[in-house]
C-alpha cells in the first residue's frame, strides 16, 4: 500500500550532524521525501504530537529534549513506508536496536531521564495522518 509517514530527526540528530546520514538511509531504501522543514518545535506542537505520553514519568524530559534545539520534520512516502521506516529506525532503546538500523548504528544510551534515539516515525496510518497534520498542515 502506498503510504506517507511523519519522520522527525530529533534535536540530537541535528546537533550531531546526522541529518544527511539519516536522510540518505531513507532515500537509499527507496522512499521519497515529500516535504521537509527544520525548526525548533513549539510547546503546542509537542503537546499535540506527544499527547499519548502525557502523564508518563518521562514526559517532561521528553518535551524538554524535543524543544531544546531545532529538529527536522519530514513527510516520507512509499509502499509500506510506515512499518518500513520503523524497521529502518530500529528499537526505541538504542542498546536494544539491531546493528544496521539508524538507532543501532548511530545512537547509544546515556543516563538521561528520556531516551534520546535520533528519530521518530509514525506507528500506524492513523498516527501518520494525525502527526502530518500537526507538522505539515498544508499536507493534511
Ligand atoms: P518516540 O518514538 O518519539 O516516542 C516517544 C519517545 O519517548 C520515544 O521515542 C523516546 O524518545 C522516549 N521514550 C519512550 N519510552 C521511554 C522510556 N521508557 N523512558 C524514557 N524515554 C522514553
UniProtKB/TrEMBL annotation:
Q: Does the keyword ATP-binding apply?
A: yes
Could you tell me the EC number(s) of this protein? 2.7.4.6
Which UniProt key words apply to this protein?
ATP-binding, Cytoplasm, Kinase, Magnesium, Metal-binding, Nucleotide metabolism, Nucleotide-binding, Phosphoprotein, Transferase
Active-site positions, per UniProt?
A: 120 (pros-phosphohistidine intermediate)
Q: What is its main location?
A: cytoplasm
Q: Which GO terms describe its cellular component?
A: cytoplasm
Q: Name one GO molecular function term.
A: metal ion binding
Could you say which residues bind ATP here? 10, 58, 86, 92, 103, 117
Q: Which cofactor does it need?
A: Mg(2+)
Q: Which reaction does it catalyse?
A: a 2'-deoxyribonucleoside 5'-diphosphate + ATP = a 2'-deoxyribonucleoside 5'-triphosphate + ADP; a ribonucleoside 5'-diphosphate + ATP = a ribonucleoside 5'-triphosphate + ADP
InterPro entries noted in UniProt: NDK-like_dom, NDK-like_dom_sf, Nucleoside_diP_kinase, Nucleoside_diP_kinase_AS
GO terms, biological process: CTP biosynthetic process; GTP biosynthetic process; UTP biosynthetic process
Q: Does the keyword Phosphoprotein apply?
A: yes
Compartments in which it is found: Cytoplasm
Q: Which residues form the Nucleoside diphosphate kinase-like domain?
A: 2-139
Enzyme class name:
transferase
Summarize the protein's role: Major role in the synthesis of nucleoside triphosphates other than ATP. The ATP gamma phosphate is transferred to the NDP beta phosphate via a ping-pong mechanism, using a phosphorylated active-site intermediate.
Q: Which family does the entry's similarity section mention? A: Belongs to the NDK family.
Q: How does it assemble?
A: Homotetramer.
Name it: Nucleoside diphosphate kinase
Source species of the chain: Brachybacterium avium
Q: Source gene? A: ndk
Amino acid at each position: 500500500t502506498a503510504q506517507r509517514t511523519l519522520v522527525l530527526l530529533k534535536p540530537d540528530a541535528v546537533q550531531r550532524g546526522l541529518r544527511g546520514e539519516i536522510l540518505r538511509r531513507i532515500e537509499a531504501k527507496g522512499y521519497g521525501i515529500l516535504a521537509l522543514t527544520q525548526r525548533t518545535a513549539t510547546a503546542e506542537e509537542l503537546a499535540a504530537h506527544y499527547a499519548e505520553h502525557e502523564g508518563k514519568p518521562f514526559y517532561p524530559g521528553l518535551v524538554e529534549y524535543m524543544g531544546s534545539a531545532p529538529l527536522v520534520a519530514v513527510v516520507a512516502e512509499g509502499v509500506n513506508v510506515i512499518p518500513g521506516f520503523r524497521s529502518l529506525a530500529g528499537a526505541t532503546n538504542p542498546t536494544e536496536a539491531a546493528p544496521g538500523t539508524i538507532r543501532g548504528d548511530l545512537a547509544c544510551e546515556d543516563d538521561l531521564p528520556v531516551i534520546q534515539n535520533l528519530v521518530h516515525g509514525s506507528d500506524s496510518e492513523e498516527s501518520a495522518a494525525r502527526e502530518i497534520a500537526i507538522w505539515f498542515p498544508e499536507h493534511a
